[in-house]
Each structure stands twice: as structure tokens, then as C-alpha cells.
Amino acid sequence: MGKVQPHVFSWIIWGVTTCIVFFAQLVGKGGIGTVPIAISGFTTLLVALYAYQKRGEIKITNSDWFFFLLAFSSLPFWFYFSSPLAAVLVLSFADSLGFIPTIRKGYVLPHSEPLGFYLIFLFRNTLAILALAEWNLTTTLFPGSAGIACLVFVFVVKYRQNKI
User: Any stretches that span the bilayer, and where are they (predicted)?
Assistant: First the structure.
């Protein structure tokens, strides 16, 4: 088994987008179902801090920089929209871009990511959707797209682990 090495770029993007989506979901009347998103945002930022401290062990590629900058360049657009839905659309897109460096790293180093964590993340997103006070695109898109991305990631890494 390899050593767990979170990709700092992915975790920064996920932390920032998750925290912003939490506030958008509050405006979208998500109710108690937004609490797991808030907790996840804070926890994700802590993992990003850890990943930053351990970053010397992970190779940052040009494509990682590209997707990191692309994701962050999309974040200011949510300020220009008066609609929480538009904000969640942009933030879900940015969050999905955040998966690309981790998928690349997981493909190259398939034992460097704890797959159980991503399955828990998928479960958390499913529970968050089920707990929402109101189901609409504003409240369900972000946890739904993040859950799907986790599932794709687990399949990619599991495939690579079986090939090596």
C-alpha cells in the first residue's frame, strides 16, 4: 500500500467551493441539510492545509496548474450572479475541475489515495441531499455532482490498482 498523499490543489479548490456553496444553499432554503456541507467545507480546508505542508512529496504538473487556475478563475463569476442557482452552477463546475489533478495523481499513483474516504464522501453527499429541507437544483446540484465525481474517481483508481 502506498502512502496517502492528498493533492493540495484539489483540496484547496474543494474547500473554497464547498464553503461558498454552503452559503448559497442557505439562501436556497436548504435547511438542516446544509450542515454537512458546512462541516465538510471546514474539514476540507484542514486537509488542504495538511496537503500544503506535505506538498514536497507530490509532483505538481503543468496540467495541475492549468486546472487549478481555471477553477479559481471561475469563482469570481458567482459574485456577478444575483441567483444562488447560477452561483452553484459555477461553483459545481469549479469543484469538478478540482477533481482533475487528483484523478491524474490517482491514475499515476493509485495507492496514494484512500478510496474509503471518497466512498464516505459519496455517502455524506447522498445523506446531505436526503436531509435537505427543499429539493431544487440550487440545493442538490453541488452535493450530487461531487458525489458522482467521487464515484468516478473510485472506479478510475480501483481500475489502476488492479492493473498494477
Answer: 7-27, 33-52, 64-81, 141-159
What are the pLDDT digits (tens) for 103-157? 999 999 998 888 998 999 899 889 989 988 889 998 899 899 999 999 999 999 9
Number of domains in the chain: 1
Alpha carbon separation from 144 to 50, 56, 138 (Å, rounded): 26, 32, 11
Q: Is residue 117 part of a domain?
A: yes
Q: Which domain holds residue 108?
A: 8-163
Helix (H/G/I), strand (E/B), else coil: 115: helix
Tell me, yes or no, whether 2 lies in a domain.
Answer: no
Residue 3 lies in a domain: no
Grid cell 469549479 in the structure block, residue: 94
pTM listed for this prediction: 0.76
Measured CA to CA, the distance from residue 158 to residue 135 in angstroms comes to 32
- The answer to whether the CB of 121 falls within 8 A of the CB of 95 is no
Amino acid at the residue 42: F
Find, among 78, 77, 109, the residue nearest to 7 by Cα.
109
